[in-house]
Write a structure and sequence with these properties.
The chain has 309 residues and is an alpha+beta fold. It folds into two domains: 112 residues, Phosphorylase Kinase, domain 1, CATH 3.30.200.20; 177 residues, Transferase(Phosphotransferase), domain 1 (Orthogonal Bundle). The chain is 39% helix and 17% strand. The chain is built from ten helices and ten strands. A six-stranded antiparallel β-sheet has the order 1-2-3-4-6-5. A two-stranded antiparallel sheet has the order 7-10. The chain has a two-stranded antiparallel ribbon with strand order 8-9. α2 runs antiparallel to α10 and α4 packs antiparallel against α6. The radius of gyration is 20 Å and the shape is globular. The two termini are 33 Å apart. Pfam families: Pkinase. GO terms for molecular function: ATP binding; protein serine/threonine kinase activity. This is CAMK family protein kinase. InterPro entries: Aur-like, Kinase-like_dom_sf, Prot_kinase_dom, Ser/Thr_kinase_AS. Keywords: ATP-binding, Kinase, Nucleotide-binding, Serine/threonine-protein kinase, Transferase.
């Protein structure tokens, strides 16, 4: 079967699919670099329930750059499809790695989690809350670099104004979100990252539900335990890790540490961020390409509303 060519890229291997479309390994035909191509149906992009989230994700994701964030390299569209070119993270996602290893030892968890918290600290300093931090949204490269991805629910904070939208994934959701209270998105991210850390070590979530229980029972029990803070910190781990988990999974958001404070926690003793300042400078070319794509998608959305598309 002939390999499909998209602009200057050749799709080489199917990787995965989801509600958004499909992801393919691709090769830049000039440089030979291997990348990832997200292929999204244009009609879906223009749907009311998807459109604003998609444009928000593109706009914010294109303007951030960090070694532990999956980087957008290129974007374009044709008459029926939107294409987004990313770095290739060919080591799977963190959920795959945790499940395959039946939980990580502290040294490996520390390696990945420091990178994750470095990325979270970076976006929080920019006033951005991710709002969907989970194992599946951390990709891993073959050289063991963690990359935070999927910024579809991220939001730029508006000063000290709380966020109101209930979003994210239930088992990672902070109590204040489940209670449908106005919340600090950064503090909610810390809770979700704490659940990620717990699951990395234990290979399961802190919430226990009856085996073979119907979905509504599982949801009810999970919500009850989250709101009550029923978290049993596992035995057999260091005091420093126990302390970090306890602090991050405090039901009072004001008592949770910031991402920057977590990077200074004793569990990470001897580990420091070593990031080249140039690696944090957003790519003006990518920003320009994304801005042009957003303008074109907005035009097509308006044409669809008018019924002229």
């Amino acid at each position: 079967m002939a390999k499909r060519t998209i602009g200057i890229y050749q799709l080489t291997q199917y990787l995965s699919s989801g509600s958004f479309g499909s992801v393919w390994e691709c090769q830049h035909m000039t440089t030979g670099e291997m990348l990832a191509c997200k292929v999204i149906d244009l009609d879906m992009c223009l749907q009311d329930e998807f459109f604003n989230h998609f444009l928000n994700e593109l706009n914010i994701h294109s303007r951030i750059r960090h070694p532990s964030i999956d980087e957008i390299r290129d974007v374009f569209l044709d008459n029926s499809t939107v294409y987004i070119i990313f770095e290739l993270c060919d080591g799977g996602d963190l959920n795959d790695i945790v499940q395959d290893s039946d939980g990580l030892d502290e040294s490996e968890a520390k390696l990945y989690f420091f990178q994750i918290m470095s990325a979270i600290s970076y976006i929080h300093k920019l006033g951005i809350a991710h709002r969907d931090i989970k194992l599946e949204n951390v990709l891993i490269t073959t050289d063991h670099q963690a990359k935070l991805t999927d910024f579809g629910l991220c939001k730029q904070a508006n000063g000290n104004s709380p966020m109101l939208t209930t979003c994210g994934t239930l088992v990672y959701a902070a109590p204040e979100i489940i209670n449908e209270q106005p919340y600090n998105g950064m503090k909610a991210d810390i809770w979700s990252a704490g659940i990620v850390l717990y699951a990395m070590i234990c290979c399961h979530f802190p919430w226990s539900t009856p085996e073979d229980a119907p979905p509504e029972t599982v949801m009810h029990e999970t919500v009850k335990q989250i709101l009550e803070g029923q978290i049993e910190i596992p035995d057999g781990i260091t005091f420093e890790l126990q302390n970090l988990m306890t602090n991050m999974l405090n039901t009072d958001p004001e008592l949770r540490p910031s991402a920057e404070e977590i990077l200074q926690h004793p569990w990470f003793e001897g580990r420091e961020e070593d990031i080249d300042a140039d690696s944090l400078i957003p790519d003006d070319n990518v920003i320009s390409l994304v801005s042009s794509l957003i303008q074109e998608l907005t035009k097509r959305k308006e044409a669809k509303v008018r019924g002229t598309m």
